[in-house]
Amino acid sequence: MKLQVKFSLYNAVTKIAIILILGAIILFSLDRLAYNQLDNRLIKKKNKIIKNLNNNEIDSLLNKEQSFTDYNILKEEFIVLTDIPDNQKDSTSKVFTEKREIEGDIEVYRILNYKFSYHTNWYNLEIGETMTALQSIKNSIRFYMLIVLVAALLITLVADFTFSNFLLKPFYRIIDKKINLVDDPTHYNYQNIPTSTSDFKILDNSINSLMRKINTLFALEKQFIANVSHELLTPISILSTRFENMLNTPDIPVGHENKIYASLKTLNRLKVIINSLLLISKVENNQYLKTEEISLQQEIDDIYEDLEDRIADKNISYSANLSKDFHFTGNKALIHTLLINIINNAIKYNVDSGVIAITDKTEDEQYILTISDTGSGMSPALVENAFDRFKRGNSEENGFGLGLAIVQSIARFHKIDVDIKSEEHKGTNISLSFSK
């Protein structure tokens, strides 16, 4: 998971938790807030009535049989004014909730009860509002609270994601330019990525320092391989020449002659190993050019001509049915080596009167070439280690275990995917996937 996604998820989880806690606190306090709001409305109405009170208003309220004001049809509000005896003079004001019957209907009201004196007379004023008003207030508060919380959450999440994207942009540029897009240490760009974050500067400088060390070791490795190859091949050639001259000596004993032949065979095997390792090293060090136009059909035809005698010796049925002649740019000699190693193994590990089939298909914007055989096959463990050097697919056969290692190195050099499917005693399928 990307660091940016983790930042965003962390911010989202923490903000959601905070908002849920705040929302719960508000919801638990909502009843008290709503009651306070309704009580304040009743007090304001009481103050307004007292301020505008006169004798006519008092007579009108005292003489009215009905007790409702402007909302008497809906019965949401009432005002009642009554005389009180002198012995109840206390000038108190209190608010309470109570059921009242108004014109035959019983409703729950929030009631403000206020006792006051006017022109030496004492009166009891009651102002009531139905609790449906309170519910309306609570619903309004819930609605606006929900809108505010959701809007705040969305705004903060978008802001956090945008900021984290801006903050981590130099980090991803360092990863892409300094690691992911680097195929060859000799072509590495040591220029620092612009950033104001000190941590990213340290990372950039550390990668540059590491790549300098790798580049130095890379150059030493190439020089070492070249020197070792030259130093080893030279004495091998000298020994081979001397052994060949010894074979030309007159009256050489048969026992000595056999030993000389065995020594020559060992030297030739050693020479093949050195050349194979040198080839793998040069390929992996990008010491070849990829500038030639290659026809897979032509390469396969040429390889068949080279191996036709071996195929005939084992009476193998060979077929190369390609639906198209796929062309791409690469190194012709290396591709030839790749294909001939695969087909060589298909012959070497095949059974007498076996089958080798070369087919192709186009799938998911890729051209796939498959080379199949009916040979001894490999176990899952051997398939897993097929590309490891000096490990052979069939331990009973002679070989150095470098054929598929060479195939893998050349394939990587040309960005070709290699896939092996094999079962013991059933054969092997090797697929090469070329990107269009």
TrEMBL record:
It comes from the Bacteria. Its EC number is 2.7.13.3. Keywords: Kinase, Membrane, Phosphoprotein, Transferase, Transmembrane, Transmembrane helix. InterPro entries: HATPase_C_sf, HATPase_dom, His_kinase_dom, HisK_dim/P_dom, HisK_dim/P_sf, Sig_transdc_His_kin-like_C, TCS_sensor_his_kinase. It is found in: Membrane. One of its GO terms (molecular function) is phosphorelay sensor kinase activity. This is histidine kinase. It catalyses: ATP + protein L-histidine = ADP + protein N-phospho-L-histidine. GO terms for cellular component: plasma membrane.
